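Blinded run. Sample ID left blank on purpose so nobody reads anything into the name before looking at the predicted structure. Input follows.
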Amino acid sequence: MRPTWMEVDLEAIRANTAALAGAVAPAALCAVVKADGYGHGDVPSAEAALDAGASWLAVALVAEGARLREADIEAPILLLSEPDPADAAEVVRWRLTPTAYRHSFLDALEQVAPAGFPVQVKVDTGMHRVGAPPVLAAELARRVAASPLHLQGIWTHFAVAEEDPAYTATQLRGLRTVTEALAARGVRPEMIHAANTAGGLAFADARLDLVRAGIGLFGLRPAPHLAPEVPLRPAMRVVSQVAYLQRLPAGARPSYGRRRPLPADATVATIPMGYADGVPRRLAENGGSVLIGGKRHSFAGAITMDQIVVDAGDDPVAVGDEVVLLGRQGAEEITADEWAERLGVLHYEVVCGFGPRLPRRYLP
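Blinded prediction complete.
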């Protein structure tokens, strides 16, 4: 109903998954599809990743896991954060694998879970966000092992795997200290894991039994320098069309605030997309551009809620021409990394930031 959409290349997700799975083998690959698949769509992304070699999925919220189950996805699904104790019954209902780092959650889970229900314990080895300190983590693991529940895993999360090898090694040693102490008392979880995309690519000794890959599935590297030998390609393309054209003289100031005079007579194209869809106003102020006809064209004024104005100069542009805000057109490409640099944010924020009124088209 509007000529503006996001294209998600499922073949790119499959190719990225296969590349990551090959790079971290023999460790298994867990596809992290929280936050609606990092903005790409959780169910299609999960299905593509599973098709290409992922054996686990991971999400942040019980509701996210339930959405995958409602789509008839049967792969094991790890909850990366401990659920509220009040949601323990829903965890069991949807056959999600919970992470635990407090006794209060285990108290609730033991009341509703059948014998053998899997639990994983998270150790805080230095991220200091969530997770049990090492002594408590060992205590929780021993409790689960002695209960009717199944101690399926012990894991941790790296804070700076893309930039600080020394600190990452310290975190890995912290995890090993816990698992070795447990083994000495006869407690051996089914799996031990630590690595995210960055950890899995950069540290072979951190791959352990499972690597939890998130941003890499979608063709983005946690850091530009990381593992260039592993081929990854972006799966997202944000596209619109020219909706309106007008010829304006030099000095005209399009859009709210009249912030910027046109440097010369120009064709100004209006694009039906704005900050309500996820295009930040600051992008126009910080040198952003769009692609029309395989060429870059700068914004001609402030980005508004529903529309963008673009300075097309003297180039031939017609109503209905394709406009690319993010992705490739011909030989040119605008990347999430470019947006992130201009906006002073992470590329994770870019791909997660497109609004719910932006339709998605999935390319097989």
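Unblinding after everyone has recorded impressions. Residues 13 and 324 are 20 Å apart (CA to CA).
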